[in-house]
Structures are given as structure tokens and as C-alpha cells.
Amino acid sequence: MTFSDLGLSEPVLKALRTIGYETPSAIQAATIPTLLAGRDVVGMAQTGTGKTAAFALPIIDRLDLSQKTPQALVLAPTRELALQVCEAFEKYAGHLKGVHVLPVYGGQGYGVQLSALRRGVHIVVGTPGRIIDHLEKGTLDLSELKYLVLDEADEMLKMGFAEDVETILADTPDTKQVALFSATMPATIRRMSKQYLNDPEEITVKTKTTTSASIAQRYLIVQWQQKMDALTRILEVENFDGMIVFGRTKIVTEEIAEKLRARGYSAAAINGDVAQPQREKSVNQLKSGKLDILVATDVAARGLDVERISHVVNFDIPTDTESYVHRIGRTGRAGRSGDAISFVTPRERGLVRAIERATRQELTEMQLPSVDEVNVTRLSRFDDRITAALAENERIDRFRDIVAHYVRNNDVPEVDVAAALAIVAQGDTPLLLEPEPERPARERRERTERDGAERSDRGERRAPREGFATYRIAVGRRHRVEPRQIVGALANEGGLRRDDFGAIKIQPDFSLVELPSDLPKDALARLADTRISGQLIDLRLDTGRSPRRTDGEQRTFRDDRPERKPRHTRTDG
């Protein structure tokens, strides 16, 4: 069976061909014709079975682009899933002009959402809490809604959204078509489907998604901005033969390949914009050993089987399990062993859990290779180069005479001459990385105590409310930062909830944010590397000290405006 057999229109089929989809998954083959026929659906399917396309393709196929009020509403339990579903809709609508999809979730400013709703949107994808907010404010009109999807309904119930979901269902037209997807079917969802769905067809798909036991699967938690440096360190310490690095977009693959070449690696990009003859040439170069790294999109690497591929790196972790299985299946083929490493940003941790559930295999968290590990590898390779050069007897004899001549005429020890020649051979790139600076624990402790004493000498700032602590971040008014940006960034990167924010006070060069005093260490670590408006926030407990001027004089920034009341902002929908 192909997608052409399911009754989809040509623009949708063209988009699928562009993406590289060839045959529908089980849930897609069963669901798409049913939804196109106008029936409600209850689908039992795990994450990663392709259910997003199962409901998105029929919706896009039947959109009325002249209608400006929302025609389709998709409810998702988390902002991450909402954004993934939005990306999927935009991808599937790639050959339809004027399709507007809007993500609606907590932690994002209302202004962006209100502007888009006023201009007109066809599809809204959102978390229940923020959808309820818009309905209460009268800013979201669902009176002409034709399609409603409940994605991962069991997860929404677990997160306490049952009442919100039922409120939304009751506030939509009775004539709408409903599709409900859930990995499990608890009694509450069964009751909901009977009450709000009209004679639904029940479709159950058991996932058969598996990965080869011969592939070692690891993942690295890394900020988006640090991915390139992380990839470089991994390339330094991993003993790889051939490698495929997967990027989510064509532009990303080109950028990665260019940066790898600049760092001395033989790399090439293959994507939909690369002509077929060039793709074949790059693949042949990988097979022959003239090329070590291919940077590819999913489409370009489809069906690729090269024995040399020992490693697959997901520079961007895929949002569905099927893509993940397909990608890492490029290594560990025909009984060979392989390694798969996925870069995961803090907000993408849920994707790792989804992959583990669907494949029934655990991914091992790895740490970023340290400077010491990189240096050990570099020294080992340098030793290997020396050993290989010593094996060239004729050339060694010639250069031995040259070195001896230099030693006699300049009265320099041979070991110094060897060191100088190593510098010449190495060029401008240092052989070893500089050690990572780390302040001794005693110095950190003494500084904290000193800061506390200085703070008490000048008088305490306003004390945070019970159970909260005041944190300082290195962005302020001069960075044009607003409270909503702070809330959105910290919520996304640190996995915070709506109740985790107290007062936010923005100063000229920094801001003070009240957060729970018992934040886990891993959340603090993730937040410390967060950026707002491109600026590293350098999150730390507020000690009351003001930034030092260049002349060493301390001053306290004053802000004579009235103290803001504690700000409570929805961050999880």
C-alpha cells in the first residue's frame, strides 16, 4: 500500500514525496481513510507509530482556505508535543499556499497568539490550559470548528487536564469530527469517548518498532548552542570509521558540514537540494574512505547501507520513533556492531523516554568528553604518527643527519630540536586543549560567605515568600528583556511549572527572579546555561552584591519604581 491508495489529494501526496514518505504506517493506513470518510476515530497507538500524520493529513486535505476562523483544534498535553505537531502540519502543508498553523501554549506571550488569531488561522495546536484561557477571554472562536483531535489523551488526564478537556469539548460545535488518540484506554477516556464522540471507529495498533541489539544507544544532554562543540569533542574521542550525522533541516546539514571541514574533518552534506549525481558521489566517497562523515537529512539517507558506518549521531533528535529507528539502523547492519549518539536539549528529554517506551530498549546517558579525555586521545594519535614515521627507514636516516647537523652547529639538545619540529608539524592549532577553569571549593565558599556579609552590612533586599529563593540572572533592561521572556526561557529549559515563579524584578543590567528554594541540582545546572536574547543568564542565588565597575568601585543599581507584585504565569499550558 502507498499513500496514493488512501484517497489523499495531489498537493498532500506531493508534500509526502518531498519529505520522503513512501508507505503508510499501520495507524496511518487504518485511520486516514476513516477520517476522510467523516467518521470519528478512537485510536490506541504508542508515540512514534506515525499517528501525527494519521490525523494531520486528512485535516490538511479538507481545509477550506477561505475560512479565517479556526477549522481544526489539536489538544496536546505539553508545549513540546504541541510544537512538534505544529511542525508536522507545516511540513505536510508544504505544497498548499496560505495554510496558517498556530501553536498556543503557556510560557509564550499572549501578544503573538492574539495577533495571529486576529489575522486568521486554520489550525490551532495547543495545551488545554492556554486554550481555556483564550476561551475565557473571548479571543479564540471555535464556533466554526470542524475537526478536533485529542492527542495523547491519557497523558492529558495524568497531568490533571480532564476538566479542561471536557470544558473545551463542550464549547465546540456538535457537528465537529473528533479523533482521540491514546496509548492506554482508562475508564475516564472510555466514558469521554462515549459522551463526546459519535459512533467512533476503534483502531488499535500494536507497535513493532525495535532497534538492533548490536547498536549501543547513548544520548547527551546539551544546550542547542553547544551542539557543534559537543560534536567536535565526540569526534576526537570516539574511535569511528565512517559516520552519518543527522540534521533536521537542509540548512543545518550544510552548516554542520561546513564547520566540520573548517575543523579539519572530511565531511559532506546530502539533502534534498543536493543533486542526485553529487549524492551518489558523496556516498561512494564514504564507501571508499575518501570521506569520513556524511551530514544528512532523513530523506537523503533513506535506504543508505554503507559497511563503513560505525557511528550515527542525531545532531537533532527526531520527534518520532520511526525516524529514530530508521536513522540508527544505518549502522549495526548485518550483524555488525554500531554506535548511536543523540544530542538532546533539556526540553527534549521526553523524546528519549518516548523512544525507550516504543523500542523497549534503554538509552544510556553519556557525559560530554572532558578536556583531559580529549588530550589523552590527541597524545595517543600523536604517538601513533611518530611511530608510523619511525617505520620509514630511508627518510628517517636522511632527517637524522639533518638534525645531527643542527645539533652540532647550534649546541642544542636533540630533545629540544624534536620539540621544535613537533611545533612546526603541528602548525597554529595547539596539540592539547587548555584545562577547563574551575574555582577551588574553598575559594567558592569564602566568596559566598564574604558576599553574605557584605549583603547584611547594606541591609537585606525584600525577602522572597516562603519556600522561594531569589535568583539573579545577567539580563536586564538594557538587553530589552521582559518578564514573559524570562518565564518562557526558564520554564522551557528548566522544566518549571506555572506555580514555580514568584516576583520578577528587572533592573538595568540584571534581573531578580523568585524560584523554589528546593530546585533540583539538574534543573539548576540546565538553567545556568540558558540564554535570553542571546545572553547567557548566569543564574545564581542573589547575594545582594551589585556588579563591579571596571575601576573596582561597587555601586548598587537603584530602581525607585514600586515593587511589582509576585507574577504567576502559566508555563505548562
Automatic annotation (TrEMBL):
The protein's organism comes out as Microbacterium allomyrinae
PANTHER family per record: ATP-DEPENDENT RNA HELICASE DEAD, DEAD-BOX ATP-DEPENDENT RNA HELICASE 47, MITOCHONDRIAL
- SMART domains the record matches: DEXDc, HELICc
List residues of the DEAD-box RNA helicase Q domain.
1-29
Q: Which GO terms describe its molecular function?
A: ATP binding; hydrolase activity; RNA helicase activity; RNA strand annealing activity
The entry's keywords: ATP-binding, Cytoplasm, Helicase, Hydrolase, Nucleotide-binding, RNA-binding, Stress response
Which residues are in the Helicase ATP-binding domain? 32-203
Motif Q motif, per the record, lies over: 1-29
Annotated EC: 3.6.4.13
Its biological purpose = DEAD-box RNA helicase involved in various cellular processes at low temperature, including ribosome biogenesis, mRNA degradation and translation initiation.
> What gene name is given for the protein in this entry?
deaD
Q: Which residues form the Helicase C-terminal domain?
A: 230-374
Main EC class the enzyme belongs to: hydrolase
What name has this protein been given in UniProt?
A: ATP-dependent RNA helicase DeaD
Name the segments for region: Disordered.
431-464, 539-573
